[in-house]
Amino acid sequence: MENPLLLFPQLNISASKDKPYYKVMKSAIKEEPRKASKPGAKQKRNRLSLLLQKPEFHEGDHLGKPGNLTKAASVSPEEAVKWGESFDKLLSEKAGLDAFTKFLKTEFSEENIEFWIACEDYKKSKSTHELLPKAKTIFETFIQKDAPKEVNLDFHTKEVTSQSIGQPLPSTFDAAQNTVYRLMEQDSYPRFLRSDPYLNLVKGRSPARPTLRRRSRSFTVNDFQGVRPDFTVW
């Protein structure tokens, strides 16, 4: 009698099943879902990494930006005290100029010191060929009506300055610069000496982040005629 498995080969299917084969298949089936889930987990990690790189997660990185005196923390108390001797002394030192500029930014009046610095640079021009483009830039930025950073000048000073822009001289902005200088010396400078960041520097403390404040009104040089405030620092 012939072997029934030879007559019916399909019956050999059950006989051909072995445990090792099913173990491999079972393991492969179980691993498939895990393999499919890995890309999703990787994408989540990438999204989290990108999220952590956003600016709002690094607020501490902005503490040294303009608007505070953090960078002036390396100034010695003795050096800071000298800034109170005169406005000239403050502006003649890089650290003092930097600290005062940051202070003006907290009061939204940084256009004054920026104009003064631009005038200082203008006077350093080595040839008349350099004067014309610089003069036009300064005039359009700080002096002409509705300039983006218009400084507060009286009518006469603005008129005299505008008349010499066509043929500028090294002294073209002297009157305007002196006016703005006096405004800062008699208005902003005393407030700077009374500000907490400056007083902390004098006392050798780390400067605190200043509070932004808006000016109550614009001052003109006429407001300070004959006034010499006391700049003594205690």
Automatic annotation (TrEMBL):
Keyword flag Transmembrane? no
RGS domain spans which residues?
Answer: 86-202
Any Pfam family matching the protein? RGS
Q: Which residues form the signal peptide?
A: none
Q: Please give a single GO biological process term from the UniProt record.
A: negative regulation of signal transduction
What is the source species? Dicrurus megarhynchus
Q: Does the keyword RNA-binding apply?
A: no
**Which InterPro entries does this chain map to?**
RGS, RGS_sf, RGS_subdom1/3, RGS_subdomain_2
By what name is this protein known? RGS18 protein
The UniProt keyword set, sorted, is:
Signal transduction inhibitor
SUPFAM superfamilies on file: Regulator of G-protein signaling, RGS (SSF48097)
